[in-house]
Amino acid sequence: MGDAGESRGKAKQMREKAxxxxxxxxxxxxxxxxxxxxxxxxxxxxxxxxxxxxxxxxIYPAE
Length: 63
What we know:
This protein has 63 residues and is an all-alpha fold. The chain has helices at residues 3-27, 31-56. Helix content is 81%, strand content 0%. Helix 1 (3-27) runs antiparallel to helix 2 (31-56). The mean pLDDT is 84.
């Protein structure tokens, strides 16, 4: 698999992890834990979007 394929695979894994984290946040009883999980899910989604864009050649990583 080339670099673009690896980036797409990584982005897909991050999207899946973000989805799982969102579900965990929905189940969390503790408000602080729920907030932490929601923030983690947002961070993963953002990273996933960046990976997808880099794989498509739309952006370049920050140096």
